[in-house]
Amino acid sequence: MISFRLSATVRLIAVSSLFFYLFMTPVTTTAQHTRKPKRVAIPAKLDSALLIHDLAFLASDATEGRATGTPGNLLAQQYIAKRFDSLGLLKTEGTYLQSFTFGNTNGTNVVGIIKGTKYPDSYIVLSAHYDHLGNRNGKIYYGADDDASGTACVMALAKYFIQHPPLHSLVLATFDAEERGLQGSKYYVDHPFVPLDKVMINVNIDIISRNDSNQVYASGLFHYPYLKKYVEEIKKATPINLLMGHDDSTKSRHDDWTNQSDHFSFHRKKIPFIYFGVEDHPDYHKPSDTFDKINKQFYFQVCTMVKDMALLLDRQTKLQ
Ligand SMILES: [Zn+2]
């Protein structure tokens, strides 16, 4: 197992170096006799190093499993807000933070916006949840896969779309208290930062950084079959085995993920969704869901696939 992980790391370094040579070198070199300013290179890919760095922080001892209402959760929340700020995402009424209360607990969503260049009043919501189960009886539930992976991916997508401005506006939403019954997203759809009837779709990512069979599911197509063609299109372009399913309660209630993560809050408001996630693994909701178990190459490829899906959806004037 150790040698496998080492080789995965080596592969990542090799792949990262290739990306560096392919995409980080300047697009043009300005000849000395021209007066044109030097063009700044814009990477065509997601920032893989940042993706892994963010995941490592969110799943570290410092954030203590990110349980809603704890200091570790606050640390994660501040980390995300700081990243949104440094990237220049737009705030709503001067803040990225949206506080809410359920029972005796306070939660906080972190939400930033990127304005669309062509359809600024139409929105795509890219979401993940940053909370997890926290410290229970002295054991940290790290939640590296669930859902530090989705949260770090949302931050990588934020960076990408700041560098490659979208046609539609994007809402980058990292929800709190998902593990307490989708509380953050429930609150958000009742108190949205942008009009809900202007939201084209929610793309939700939760648990995307490891799978022994190289598989990830796009779920929700049973409810919104017209979205299948977009998934089919993306399937051709990704090395990941992209499957569809886990959304039909008439087949098996147990197997239906429709109400299993924050996309359900959007679905209840009749907003179409696509949820990306892997099937459960033995470390799901256990202290052993740790950073070292992440398959970095797989994770990067899945997050890239989500980016490509967002790009494809962004190019549509209407989803039908
Ligand atoms: Zn989750």
Description:
α3 (71-87) runs parallel beside α4 and α6 (228-237) packs across α8 (296-314). This protein has one domain: Zn peptidases (Aminopeptidase, 3-Layer(aba) Sandwich). Helices cover 36% and strands 19% of the residues. The longest helix has 23 residues, at 2-24. The chain is built from eight helices and ten strands. The protein starts with a helix and ends in a 6-residue tail after the last helix. The strands form two sheets. The chain has an eight-stranded mixed sheet, sandwiched between helices. A two-stranded antiparallel ribbon has the order 4-5. The protein has 320 residues and is of the alpha/beta class. Zinc ion binds next to α4. Zinc ion is lined by residues 129, 146-147, 178, 206-207, 261.
Topology record:
Elements: H1 2-24, H2 48-58, H3 71-87, E1 97-102, E2 105-114, E3 119-129, E4 134-136, E5 139-141, H4 144-163, E6 168-175, H5 183-190, E7 199-205, E8 215-219, H6 228-237, E9 241-244, H7 263-268, E10 273-277, H8 296-314
Parallel strand pairs: 3-6, 3-7, 7-10, 8-9
Antiparallel strand pairs: 1-2, 2-6, 4-5, 8-10
Helix pairs in contact: 2-4, 3-4, 6-8
Zinc ion binds at residues 129, 146-147, 178, 206-207, 261.
Q: What is the CATH topology classification name? A: Aminopeptidase
The total domain count is: 1
Any idea of the CATH class? Alpha Beta
Helix-strand sequence? HHHEEEEEHEHEEHEHEH
